[in-house]
Write a structure and sequence with these properties.
The complex is a heterodimer. Chain A is mainly beta. In chain A, 12% of the residues lie in helices and 43% in strands. Chain A has 3 helices and 18 strands. Chain A is globular and about 110 Å long. The termini of chain A are far apart. By secondary structure, chain B is mainly beta. In chain B, a hairpin with a 5-residue loop joins strand 17 and strand 18. Classes of the chains: A mainly beta, B mainly beta.
């Protein structure tokens, strides 16, 4: 590492010093702040849920599109109104905070306003600074109560006069036989549809695969076993805002603009008419013959 | 064999020039013959990367044969040539103790200059970089080169001119290493003490190298000393090293072993905030056997890395490499053909462990054989050869990439390469070449034409204009989740889409000039990229994603200035780079109304400045390095909410929490803040008794404690920073 040279050490040490001071002054003056977020001028509220003409109370999930990853428990800055577009009837929805733990904050808005079939409703969430998100959704027409039927040895549910079937769920109320605790399981059968074998274009059959459901429940109780206390079928029809979400790529669904029907917001709101019937056959006598018939509607097990 | 007419009747001489103590091949040694019995005919050449020289077209007579290399004693002999003599003379050169100081300041002024697109990196280059250990490290040096982008002090990921880490070929004595750098960004298994040299090609590399599309780093590991036993031990807050070497009892064989182990996980608890949950180690051994005609070596290397790159996440990454192989170079007596062969095995595994999901792993094993030949016909040099590769791949990535699952399979690949160097007059040479390869059942036969040329307009090596063009294909892809800069987990696999071998076409043009002690160079490049596998974007926080293909391009230029005189060394480099990918994703159609989007990938660093100064103040060597890099792209969040899904029926609004979502802007539209860091060091050697030497080095990383961002996690809106100010003192003691 030794060598002779003709460069003055003093001169070079000055050069080094100036270089160091220059770099230091330049860099220390740099702004180190980092604001990763794009300023949000597009999406004010996130709105999810559905209006149900058969429900006494309407529940919608409405939260501000927030700046931070974790939600806060601060009071929500939102006034949510629901208005019947045809009649002009309007109500302010009530907020309800549900926060089972500090990391979960759910703001649900509810109203007991009557929701009419075939009516269009406008839901608006407004901030105190006037910024708002809004959507309109139309309730579908009412439809006959679906009928349980056994076709070719298979249990099916016949749904008639529904343009958009948004949900067919089996609801199982069970109790494990060891701890005596009760559970509710929901299984979707929406993708188990058949075209009507009876030649009706306004009719869809949904297969109710009880063995599959029971197998899935049994996995939850590998060491104990369970008994079924009750079971129901839940059917929902949807208004014209419905899109087929069952085959839609989840990545697309979660994009802000993927399926959102909220103006100046994100989310998906739907108008529906839901019906809950017992998972059983009901019959009636007609012209002296016994035939399958719709059962009485039930309150959904929760 | 190639005919050497029309001068077949003339004599020729060839041989290999090596170091006396270690038998390492000496590249760039000047070999001259001067006729002394008549008219003083003179011819001269420089040895190539194999230390090989060949002088042909020698008329009969008596010649003074001279081999000189800076820092070594000159070898002189007198040789009588008769017509049709084919002489072989391999020479070993002894270090010249009187010239050592000059070697330091003159020979090593090569950080700027390239030859045929290659930059040769020497141990002295590494020593100038302030690293928190006595002696330098190859990866620290690489990060000073314009066009080489490292995303931070963690991860060991190096992106070169728009290419991703898995597109770089790193060879260790001819053995491919899949994951070559350690998890702490300053360190690799290649410290200054262990390497002889490294040849770095940022693009436009020759047909000798194939199977990668971005760059080549060809590392020559040091042989052990054939005459003396030596050992050294070093310790710093970051790492500890032990090296030992010696002869096998005969003067033709030697060994060298080393072990490197990190200490940062332990020491950071005491003085670095936050703690660094990072660990690495490497083990290395090499034996070499050398005679006049044959140089053979065998190498073993093992590396292990473990750590969490995003300290906020519970994901732990582990990886390791095993390398085993040998290479031989043979120059048969009275032959004009230099034969080189490699037989080796390399294995890499990496694993990602996460509390919430099943472990993912990917392993790749590779057996490789080749034979390469170098032959001169008059002044025309031919390099040609053939290779066979068998790979076994095994991965289980369920839950990470939606399209992929678990698979294991073998791949067989064979091919050949050919390049000829043709001098056209004294100032111009052209080097056309080609690689032909087949991978049966997977891809179509591949032909990759390449062309390089160099023009020395003033007839001197001090000014050179060079250009290169080449097609490069890569049969195996290494897929990382580029959405996440902290994700170094790489899945090695054949291209996930049928027949879509990754491909790049390189175009390079460079100028370099030496003016006294001042060197400067500029190189412009353009790379056309095809079939790059990238993950699609999702807006829900999860590691699972699908893969898709992207095409793209990268262009830019590197500008470097270097001055070296006496005790002073200074280098300034500036790199400009622009990389653009274009991808068609169904997502994008819903997102932006256009399924095809162009974007800058997350390693697209536009501007990079590196300055380095070292000066020997008396006995103290002071080193200063300052790096600046403009921000790399990231995807900006707009806001956060929870999604309720309708795909399994109407959601239970009152009871369902929902899935947390980040509402994203267009991918990679944002830029992270500028990155800059000043590292300083001062070191001194002390001579001890018993022929021992103590080296003490003190310094600081990130001297002005800049809060440099390592990684911004868009899914959690959290930042992770690189190392803060870290002062250190390091020691090394060993044989002189």
């Amino acid at each position: 590492m030794k060598s002779t040279n003709d460069i003055s050490g003093l001169y070079l040490s000055k050069v080094l010093l100036v270089l160091l001071l220059g770099i230091t002054s330049i860099t220390l003056s740099c702004d180190e702040s980092f604001e990763p977020r794009e300023v949000n001028t597009s999406y004010f509220y996130s709105m999810y849920g559905y209006l149900d003409a058969t429900a006494d109370t309407q529940w919608l999930r409405i939260t501000p599109v927030r700046e931070d990853f974790d939600p806060t428990r601060d009071p929500i800055d939102a006034t949510v109104t629901i208005r019947n577009v045809e009649t002009g009837e309007e109500a302010v929805m009530n907020d309800s905070l549900f926060s089972p733990n500090p990391l979960v904050v759910m703001w649900n808005f509810w109203t007991t306003m009557t929701i009419e079939p075939e009516a269009t409703y406008e839901i608006t969430a407004t901030r105190s600074d006037g910024m708002s998100s809004t959507t309109r959704t139309t309730i579908p027409p009412d439809y006959p109560t679906p009928i349980y039927y056994v076709y070719n040895g298979e249990e099916v549910m016949i749904v008639r006069d529904v343009d958009n079937v948004a949900d067919v769920q089996a609801i199982w109320h069970v109790r494990d036989t060891f701890f005596n605790r009760e559970y509710i399981f929901n299984f979707s059968h929406i993708q188990d549809s058949l075209f009507s074998p009876f030649g009706y274009s306004n009719e869809i059959l949904f297969r109710l695969n009880a063995n599959r459901d029971i197998g899935l429940i049994a996995r939850q109780f590998p060491d104990t076993g369970f008994e079924v206390l009750n079971r129901q079928i839940f059917i929902a029809s949807a208004g014209p805002q419905w899109i087929n979400l069952y085959t839609l790529d989840e990545n697309i669904y979660t994009l802000a603009e993927g399926v959102s029907n909220i103006d100046d917001g994100v989310g998906f709101l739907l108008g529906t008419i839901t019906k809950t019937v017992p998972w059983q056959a009901c019959f009636r006598e007609r012209n002296g013959a016994i035939e399958y018939a719709a059962c009485e509607l039930e309150k959904r097990i929760r | 064999m190639l005919s050497n007419s029309p001068h077949a009747q003339w004599a020729s001489i060839q041989g290999v020039v090596t170091d006396y103590e270690t038998s390492e091949k000496l590249e760039g040694a000047n070999v001259t013959i001067q006729q002394i019995d008549n008219n003083n005919r003179f011819k001269g050449v420089a040895t190539d990367r194999n230390g090989f020289y060949q002088i042909g077209s020698i008329r009969s007579g008596v010649y003074e044969f001279k081999v000189s290399f800076l820092g070594y004693e000159t070898y002189v002999d007198t040789i009588r040539f008769r017509l049709e003599d084919v002489k072989t003379l391999s020479v070993t050169l002894k270090l010249d103790a009187n010239q050592l100081g000059e070697v330091v300041v003159e020979q090593q002024a090569g950080g700027v200059l390239r030859e045929e697109g290659r930059q040769r990196v020497s141990p002295m280059d590494l020593s100038r970089i302030p690293t928190p250990v006595v002696g330098g490290d190859l990866v620290s040096y690489l990060q000073t080169l314009p066009g080489v982008v490292s995303l931070g002090s963690r991860g060991g990921q190096v992106f070169i001119r728009g290419g991703s880490p898995s597109e770089n070929m790193v060879l260790v004595d001819g053995i491919l290493i899949y994951k070559p750098f350690h998890i702490v960004g300053f360190f690799s298994p290649f410290p200054q003490d262990l390497i002889t040299s490294a040849d770095f090609y940022a693009g436009g590399f020759s047909p000798y190298y194939n199977g990668r599309i971005s760059s080549v780093l060809d590392i020559n590991m040091r042989n052990g000393n054939k005459f003396e036993y030596k050992a050294s031990a070093a310790v710093s807050p970051f790492v500890t090293d032990i090296v030992a070497e010696g002869p096998f009892g005969v003067e033709t064989a030697s060994w060298i072993v080393s072990m490197r182990r990190s200490l940062i996980q332990t020491t950071s608890k005491a003085f670095i905030e936050p703690e660094q949950p990072l660990k690495f180690e490497s083990h290395y051994g090499k034996v070499s056997f050398n005679t006049n005609d044959v140089q053979c070596s065998g190498l073993f290397m093992h590396t292990y890395d473990r750590g969490r790159l995003d300290f906020e996440k519970d994901e732990t990454i582990r990886w390791g490499n095993i390398l085993l192989g040998g290479q031989c170079q043979v120059l048969p007596e009275e032959s004009k053909l230099l034969l080189e062969t490699n037989v080796n095995f390399s294995h890499m595994w990496n694993q990602s462990q996460n509390e919430d999901q099943k472990d993912s792993f990917s392993r790749v094993s590779r057996v490789y054989m080749d034979i390469n030949m170098t032959q001169y016909v008059n002044d025309i040099r031919f390099i040609f050869g053939a290779f066979l590769t068998t790979r076994y791949l095994n991965y289980d990535i369920r839950g990470r990439f939606q399209d992929l699952d678990t698979e294991r399979y073998g791949l067989f690949n064979m091919g050949s390469h050919f390049e000829v160097t043709i001098p056209l007059g004294s100032n111009l040479k052209v080097q056309p070449g080609i690689v032909a390869s087949i991978l049966p059942g997977i891809y179509q036969p591949s032909f990759e034409p390449r062309f390089r040329t160099a023009w020395q307009p003033f007839g001197s090596e001090k000014q050179e204009l060079s250009a290169a063009f080449g097609v490069y294909r890569q049969p195996l892809v290494g897929i990382s989740d580029m959405r996440d800069a902290s994700s170094v987990f790489t899945i090695w696999m054949r291209a996930p889409f049928d027949g879509a071998q990754m491909e790049a076409t390189h175009y390079l043009l460079s100028w370099q000039q030496s003016i006294g002690n001042f060197n400067w160079s500029i190189e412009g490049y353009y790379k056309d990229l095809e079939n790059i596998s990238i993950p699609t974007w999702t807006t829900v926080a999860r590691v699972s994603t699908e893969l898709t293909l992207a095409d793209g391009y990268s262009y830019g230029s590197d500008l470097r200035f270097e001055y070296s005189k006496g005790r002073f060394y200074g280098m300034v480099g500036y790199g400009y780079s622009l990389t653009m990918y274009e991808s068609s994703q169904e997502n994008f159609g819903f997102w932006f109304d256009d399924p095809v989007q162009s974007f800058h990938p997350p390693h697209d660093r536009r501007h990079q400045v590196n300055t380095m100064v070292s000066y020997l103040f008396g006995e103290y060597l002071v080193g200063v390095r300052w790096q600046l890099g403009s921000g790399v792209p990231f995807t900006q969040p707009i806001g956060f909410d929870e999604v309720l899904f309708f795909d399994k029926g109407l959601p239970d609004v009152r009871g369902t929490v929902g899935t947390r979502r980040v509402i994203l802007n267009k991918p990679y539209e944002g830029r992270l803040p500028m990155y800059h860091r000043l590292d300083v060091s001062i070191e001194r050697d002390y001579e001890l008794e018993n022929n021992l030497e103590l080296n003490v080095k003190a310094g600081a990383i990130n001297t002005y404690d800049r809060r440099n961002l390592f990684f911004y996690d868009v899914f959690t809106n959290s930042r992770s920073d690189q190392l803060p100010l870290v002062p250190y003192i390091a020691f090394k003691i060993g044989s002189k």
